[in-house]
Design a protein that fits this description.
The complex is a heterodimer of chains A (about 120) and B (about 900).
Chain A lengths: L7 H21 L4 H12 L9 H11 L3 E7 L5 E7 L1 H29 L2
Antiparallel strand pairs in A: 1-2
Helix pairs in contact in A: 1-3, 1-4
Chain B lengths: L1 H14 L2 H25 L4 H12 L2 H11 L3 H19 L1 H30 L10 E7 L14 H9 L4 E15 L5 E8 L3 H5 L5 E2 L14 E4 L1 H8 L9 E4 L2 E8 L24 E4 L4 H5 L6 E6 L5 H19 L8 E6 H6 L3 H42 L4 H37 L2 H6 L6 H28 L2 H10 L5 H37 L9 E7 L8 H16 L4 E7 L12 E5 L6 H4 L5 E7 L3 H5 L3 E4 L10 E5 H7 L12 E4 L7 E7 L14 E5 L7 E8 L7 H11 L8 E3 H8 L1 H35 L1 H9 L4 H34 L11 H27 L3 H6 L2
Parallel strand pairs in B: 3-8, 5-7, 14-19, 16-18
Antiparallel strand pairs in B: 1-9, 1-10, 2-3, 2-6, 2-9, 4-7, 5-8, 6-7, 11-20, 11-21, 12-20, 13-14, 13-17, 15-18, 16-19, 17-18
Helix pairs in contact in B: 2-3, 2-4, 5-6, 5-14, 6-13, 6-14, 6-16, 13-16, 13-17, 13-18, 13-25, 14-16, 18-25, 18-27, 18-28, 19-23, 25-27, 25-28, 27-28
The chains are: A mainly alpha (about 120), B alpha+beta (about 900).
């Protein structure tokens, strides 16, 4: 009965991906999965190595939390595609997560600085 | 907990769509790869290379799909669905077991809920009055008369005195029957009505729905021509037109002003509910104020029912004594010579409605509880049998690695699925059962029955059956889990002799089922025998091919006795001439209904002179007015003397045997012919006894026949009469011809009821039949459950011992030996159950004693029949497996594993 149980290591990574997806949807407006992947690639400047398929798992997770909603629409080259939109709850979550992230990044940054000095 | 629950709920949104979701994700992923490929191609890659690069960049598509699918699943829900599916598959493979369990549950729960819902509404639910527990009906008991007339209604004089006196009662209301012949607008119609105190509606706490109630001055003679009509009558006859208020309608030839319409929910006593001597119509649709005129106040007539309402905190016992004191004070003043102390009985209003049916309903309830117990025993038995036969399956599953929880969960699921399906059918059954009970039950039940199901009881019955199911279905599985699977498998493979504690508890259960079935069958048998006795009892009149037509004359034309006499004389003569009529006559009160519109009178000897000193020592007789031909038409048998002739110049009477016996106790009743008597008073005319007839008993045979004095209608004219026709063929075929004859004589007369005597008698035994039918149905179901249980146990033990039997046959045992062996094993619990059940039944029959007729509680015929039925049924249940055992081929049996 293997189901949804994933090692703790990827959890962190997943969380990061979820945050990236959420932020992308907030700044770009409704997008399909391919568009999200392209945007992340563009921003990360090929620093991040991303299995783009996991974007879809992330999108499903976000839907479960009701942070994004999905609807079918037509893409720019007239293909049917599923478009994802950030919800009100999703924006709230993004703000909270951003704060959280900044705090943790600050803490880790300080920690690393002190660790290097002596 | 709450967040987990919310998460579960939000996840459930996706569960149903998870396959579609997963497919959609696959489509998206494919599109993604296409787009990436196209992009790489545009940047100059070869198509194959581009596709490969795109795939690499997207990663493992299958894993993503699976992740999404699992994300959208709930683990235990998967297992549950699987278990439920498995349960249904198992039931489909063994539909007999599943349907028997489901049916048993449905019958046990359904029957109980239906019965209890009806019993609750009839016996326990508050009546639709304000503070109904304060309302009582008043009855007068004259101790010296008690053996003949257990109680009397009240005189209007006593009611008026009571109302004036200061007592424990906050309010009083009197009412008496009133037959209405409504004419003028539309077809003439005979409608049941009542004369009531002006305060009647406020007394009950049920104000009229439209218009107004009566005012106090409308109790004055001359101002009383106002009526309130029922909601039903208003809708039916007056088309729900509110303008009928303020209009006059013609009742009994006099115009009455309609002042109000009663609410549809108003419930009033009907028929003989208030008192056996007060014959109200089966429906009351018109109310008019009582207005005792001076003339009326001079006569003393015990013809009013009086309802009283106790003050809050008042004592009924104290109030009763106050009423007694007032009544006995009146007696002392009016008739100092009569030495009697009247006793007042206060009957709670609930008793008026439910008193006569209470015992029967409680016994029906008891029977349905026995049925529920039988159902539980039966379910226990079935599930134990199934668990035993599945011991091997459990062992195999555990051996293959199923966890304890998984095996238990599976069994639990099966039991719950059965309970839910059975319970759902039970609810439907209960609903229709309650409807059927309410509509086909006797009037007492029908009027009060509420077909809404009693929810607490439904839950209780369901819990009880399901708990039984859980205990009997899951316990064996649990046991199986704790056993060593390998040992169990080996043992199962070799013998499984079917001895052991499980088999013994199953035998015990069969014994219990049989005992319960016996008790139910015995009660049903006693009731059935009583019913047959009642139906075949000699009532003193014919039942077959007799038609009864109620006729009532009103108005100017009939105000003098001569008018009524002429009308009935003509009517009987004309009807007698109709083809198909063998004999015709009319009587003021049908003996089958035991009512008395003609009233009752004290009968004196010709030598009596001291009225007050003798009135309580002489017998009371119902006075029935008859036309010539009545005795012939009704089939009364003459013991001595003669019936009436067409002309009777001198006062004569035909008396019933019981009256003759009471008047002249030391002589044979036939010797009364030619003697003389006085009716009602010591100063009246001397009446010669022309003949003596056998007693006519009430249709239900539930009361001793009252002494009756029959008078020729010319000498004792009555307004309402019932035409009695003896016919050559089916009596109801003559109904329209009789109606035409009545119209010809008076087009304004309404004929209220044309019924065959069979229908009338049948309606008087409705309560008895109701109880009999239900008890018999319960008993048969219990018997069936017992037989199925027995069959199951015996079949199982035969199946377990196939090898054993094979060996015996191979070693030379005769087929009859095998049969005998199976039989003696199977019948043992039956016989024990039979004896125990019989004991219980005879003890329980004491409760039935009052409802039996013509038999004792230990009636050998009924109980013997029960034994025979039970033995035959269980014999059959044993015979089928026994025959199978005896027909075994030893070679196959020995190889059977």
């Amino acid at each position: 009965m293997a189901k949804g149980s994933t090692p703790a290591k990827t959890d962190v990574l997943q969380g990061t991906l979820d945050l990236m997806v959420l932020k992308t949807l907030e700044s770009m407006g409704p997008l399909h999965g391919y568009g999200i992947a392209r945007r992340i690639e563009q921003i990360s400047d090929a620093v991040l190595k991303l299995n783009e398929g996991t974007v879809y798992a992330s999108l499903m997770r976000l839907q479960h939390q009701r942070w994004i909603s999905a609807s079918w629409g037509n893409s720019e080259n007239n293909r049917r595609a599923k478009f994802y939109t950030i919800t009100r709850q999703g924006r709230g979550q993004l703000t909270a997560e951003t704060e959280n992230w900044k705090r943790i990044a600050g803490v880790i940054g300080r920690l690393l600085r002190t660790a290097v000095e002596p | 907990m709450w967040t987990r629950f919310l998460a579960l709920v939000s996840r459930l949104r996706f569960v149903a769509a998870r396959r579609r979701m997963s497919d959609e994700a696959a489509d998206e992923l494919n599109a993604h790869i296409e787009l990436l490929t196209a992009r790489y191609v545009r940047s100059g890659m070869a198509p194959d290379e581009a596709r490969l690069a795109a795939r690499r960049q997207v990663g493992n598509v299958v894993m993503v799909r699976e992740e999404i699918y699992h994300m959208n699943s709930v683990g235990w829900l998967e297992v549950l669905t699987q278990d439920v599916r498995y349960a249904f598959r198992t039931f489909a493979r063994n539909p007999g077991f599943a349907s028997v369990v489901i049916l048993t549950l449905a019958l046990g729960i359904g029957a109980n809920t239906a019965i209890f819902s009806v019993v609750y509404s009839v016996l326990l639910k508050p009546l639709p009055y304000a503070r109904p527990e304060q309302i009582y009906s008043v009855e007068v008991v004259i101790p010296e008369r008690r053996d003949q007339i257990p109680s009397l209604p009240v005189t209007v004089q006593a009611y008026l005195e009571w109302r004036k006196a200061h007592t424990e009662f906050a309010a009083m209301s009197a009412l008496r029957p009133w037959e209405c012949n409504v004419t003028g607008d539309g077809e003439p119609e005979r409608i049941g009505g009542a004369r009531v105190s002006a305060t009647f509606f406020s007394f009950l706490g049920v104000p009229v729905a439209r218009g107004r109630g009566f005012s106090a001055e409308e109790e004055q003679p001359g101002k009383e021509r106002v009526v309130v009509i029922s909601d039903a009558l208003w809708r039916r006859r007056y088309g729900s037109d509110a303008a009928v208020i303020g209009k006059t309608i013609v009742i009994n030839g006099e115009s009455h002003l309609v002042v109000g319409i009663a609410p549809a929910s108003l419930m009033v006593p009907t028929g003989a509910q208030l008192h056996p001597l007060l014959p109200f119509a089966p429906r009351i649709d018109i109310w008019k104020p009582i207005a005792p005129a001076v003339r009326e106040l001079k006569n003393e007539s015990w013809d009013h029912a009086v309802l009283v309402r106790l003050r809050s905190g008042g004592s009924a016992e104290h109030g009763r004594h106050e009423l007694e004191a007032v009544l006995n004070g009146m007696f002392r003043v009016q008739r100092p010579g009569i030495k009697t102390q009247a006793v007042i009985q206060l009957v709670p209003v609930r008793e008026i409605y439910a008193g006569k049916i209470r015992l029967r309903l409680l016994l029906i309830l008891a029977a349905s509880v026995l049925l529920l117990l039988t159902a539980c025993a039966s379910i226990a038995n079935l599930l134990l049998a199934r668990a035993a036969s599945r011991a091997n399956e459990f062992a195999t599953r555990i051996a293959l690695g199923a966890g304890q929880a998984r095996v238990l969960g599976q069994t639990l699921t099966e039991t719950i699925v059965l309970a839910i399906v059975g319970g759902a059918i039970a609810v439907g059954l209960a609903k229709y059962g309650a409807l059927a009970l309410a509509s086909y039950g006797p009037d007492d039940v029908r009027l009060l029955a509420d077909t809404r199901l009693n929810l607490p009881l439904l839950v209780f019955a369901m819990t009880m059956s399901v708990m039984t199911g859980l205990v009997c279905g899951v316990a064996p599985a649990w046991q199986a889990c704790r056993k060593d699977a390998a040992a169990e498998l080996n043992a199962g493979a070799r013998t499984s002799l079917g001895g052991g504690p499980a088999a013994r508890s199953r035998q015990f259960l069969v014994g219990v089922e049989m005992a319960l079935a016996t008790a139910l069958l015995a009660s049903a048998g006693l009731l059935l025998h009583s019913f047959v006795n009642v139906m075949h009892a000699d009532r003193g009149y014919e039942i077959e091919r007799v038609l009864a037509v109620d006729v009532s004359v009103f108005g100017q034309r009939y105000s003098a006795a001569a008018g009524r006499t002429a009308f009935y004389g003509d009517l009987v003569g004309n009807v007698r001439a109709l083809p198909g009529v063998v004999a015709a006559g009319a009587v003021s009160d049908l003996p089958a209904l035991a009512s008395s519109t003609g009233g009752s009178r004290t009968i004196f000897h010709p030598t009596d002179t001291d009225f007050q000193g003798l009135v309580l020592a002489r017998p009371v007789a119902m006075v029935r007015s008859v036309t010539t031909g009545y005795f012939a038409a009704s089939g009364s048998s003459l013991r001595a003397g003669r019936f009436f002739a067409d002309e009777e110049p001198l006062p004569v009477a035909v008396i019933s045997e019981s009256l003759a016996r009471r008047l002249w106790p030391r002589e044979d009743p036939t010797a009364a012919v030619g003697r003389r008597l006085r009716q009602g008073d010591v100063t009246g005319p001397l009446i010669a006894v022309a003949g003596v007839v056998t007693d006519a008993r009430p249709g239900g045979m539930d009361r001793e026949p009252l002494p009756v004095i029959y008078r020729p209608y010319q000498q004792w004219a009555s307004g309402p009469m019932t035409l009695v026709l003896r016919t050559a063929q089916e009596p109801s075929a003559l109904a329209s011809a009789v109606r035409t004859e009545i119209r010809k004589l008076d087009p304004d007369l309404a004929v209220s009821a044309i019924r065959t005597m069979r229908d009338i008698v049948s309606s008087t035994v409705a309560q008895r039949r109701f109880q009999l039918t239900l008890t018999a149905v319960f008993a048969l179901v219990a018997l069936l459950l017992g037989a199925v249980g027995l069959y199951g146990v015996v079949s199982y033990s035969v199946a377990c011992r196939t090898r054993d039997i094979g060996v015996r046959i191979a070693l030379g045992a005769l087929r009859t030996d095998v049969m005998r062996w199976v039989f003696s094993n199977g019948m043992k619990p039956v016989l024990i159950g039979l004896v125990a059940g019989m004991g219980a039944a005879i003890a329980a029959a004491r409760a039935l004693r009052g409802l039996l007729f013509g038999i004792t509680p230990a009636d050998p015929l009924s109980l013997g029949a029960v034994v025979v039925v039970l033995l035959l049924t269980s014999g059959l249940a044993c015979y089928l497996p026994a025959r199978r055992a005896a027909a075994l081929d030893p070679m196959i049996a020995l190889r059977h594993e």
